[in-house]
Amino acid sequence: MKINIIGGGVSGLTAGCFLQMNGFETHIFEKHSIPGGLCTSWKKGDYTFDSCAHWILGSDKGSSFYKIWSEILDMKKIKFHNHDIRVEVGTKNHANKYGEKNFKLYTNLTQLENYMIDLAPEDAKAIKAFIKPMRVMQKFDLPPILDDLPFFQSMIRGIKMVRYLEFLYWFLKIKNYTNYTYAKKFKNAFLRESFELLYDGEEVNMMVLTMPLSVFDKKSAGYPIGGSMEFAKKIEQTYLKLGGTMHYKTPVKKIITEHGLAKGVLVRNDVTHLSDLTLSAADWHYTVFEALEGKFVDQHMLDLRDLKKFDVFYSVMQFSFGIGKDLSDFPHFSRIPLDEAIESPDGTKYTRFEVHIYNYDDTLAPKGKTAVTVSFYTTNRDFWIDARKNDRPKYRKAKEEFTNKIIELLDKRLGGIKEYIEVIDVATPATFQRYTGNWKGSTQGWLPGKNLLAKSPVGFKLPGLKNFYYSSHWNQPGGGLPIAIKTGRDVAKEICKEYKVKFKTISQTK
Length: 510
Ligand SMILES: Cc1cc2nc3c(=O)[nH]c(=O)nc-3n(C[C@H](O)[C@H](O)[C@H](O)COP(=O)(O)OP(=O)(O)OC[C@H]3O[C@@H](n4cnc5c(N)ncnc54)[C@H](O)[C@@H]3O)c2cc1C
Prior knowledge:
Elements: E1 2-6, H1 10-21, E2 25-29, E3 41-44, E4 47-50, E5 56-57, H2 65-72, E6 80-81, E7 85-90, E8 102-106, H3 109-119, H4 124-140, H5 155-174, H6 179-183, H7 189-197, H8 206-216, E9 221-224, H9 228-241, E10 245-247, E11 252-258, E12 261-267, E13 271-274, E14 277-280, H10 284-291, H11 299-305, E15 311-312, E16 315-323, E17 333-343, E18 349-357, E19 370-378, H12 381-390, H13 392-413, E20 421-427, H14 429-436, E21 446-447, E22 468-470, H15 481-498
Parallel strand pairs: 1-2, 1-14, 2-10, 7-17, 14-22
Antiparallel strand pairs: 3-4, 5-9, 6-9, 7-8, 11-12, 12-13, 15-21, 16-19, 16-20, 17-18, 18-19
The protein binds flavin-adenine dinucleotide (FAD).
């Protein structure tokens, strides 16, 4: 059975790998000349700028996602870097008892607990109550593969259920807290301000903080040395080894349908590729409203299109600099308050900025030099997308003027780097949209908002269309690489079930 897959991002590649393992003939049509989609990095001069895999959930055995990654990658052969500090958050109004105005979010939970109690012994009770659920989560670790969910089948599974109940108790206790409401529990003003600023002043459910931290502590959310593109290429290599076919520089224009059946794809130069099944792992909006011309929708999908149910995840402006200086003494990732707010050309006001110094990956820059990125998240992405489309000089000017402001900020922060800047690269929401097709330049599909357990808004099927499937980070609010591989694997499994093929996997870890 032949399956055409649209999109060679992580979800499309993963689906391709599992379908090949199960005897299907697959072809991936990718509009770009490289694999990975949003999981990418790019070269400019002597530098590589990375844009995705700051941390990969399941990089080691401490997360059950390791099992899925191991089915498509030889994880033991990939070098991951585990940070001691997740992020340093600069405060503006309050210093800690040592006079420091930066909060260190340690990845080791014991260290984090000791650090916080040292700074604020008066808050020991609230600090311990912050750490405890993460310890419980570590025992729980929801298996991404639903077959592994411990229901009532055996005694051992029954014992696991008790752990789940413990998790449930703690989950219910913290589920309604945000970093803001939790901050109120602290008497210490420095801790209070630090917690409020953890997400750049955004109010975020505490699970967004605690779930990853529980995995960081187990060193199972590492950064792959070499960057995102090298990581994506490894998945592509598995796919090719399993006999799959990549068609690069082959944008799909239309999904061909006849009497409610998907028949194949129409690609550039009006070439047709017929298949038994079509799987789109490309952008949701493009798939439904362009490739299928909005013919297979229901009210729910129209509501999604009109943003009545979810917002689109933030887009990003990424300013990347190749700096001819050793910056190994600086924190690798920090959020820094600005003395004066700055306004982006798209109208968003920022009171802080986020700097990523890749001083832990020497493959990204020549010896003694450093790749640095500054990111600003925005929802005013239409400004960039429209300007690039309709007024290129305005787009270029906006980029240039804002870049100059960023250089000033960076120069101040890193103690005089202006004259060491060798390479500059600017990516806007328009860039991400253009290269990957993601609607409004979204970096992670839908924004989950406060409802972290929101039901999946987009399923594997579309109403009224047979022989068609859909999988990508748009299937589950929050997106990210774990969702991309999980949906890729799950859709392959769904296809196997429908065509009565017993789903099998092959571990790639030797
Ligand atoms: C700045 C940034 C930082 C991030 N950080 C992290 C992180 O630290 N951890 C994490 O887990 N996730 C992170 N993410 C999110 C993660 O990269 C994405 O959620 C994930 O890569 C999405 O994979 P996907 O396969 O679902 O979609 P995509 O990557 O969007 O893949 C879709 C593919 O379809 C192709 N395509 C689109 N239209 C067509 C067409 N018409 N014809 C042919 N091909 C087409 C695209 O070119 C692309 O290759 C980050 C993303 C960004 C941008």
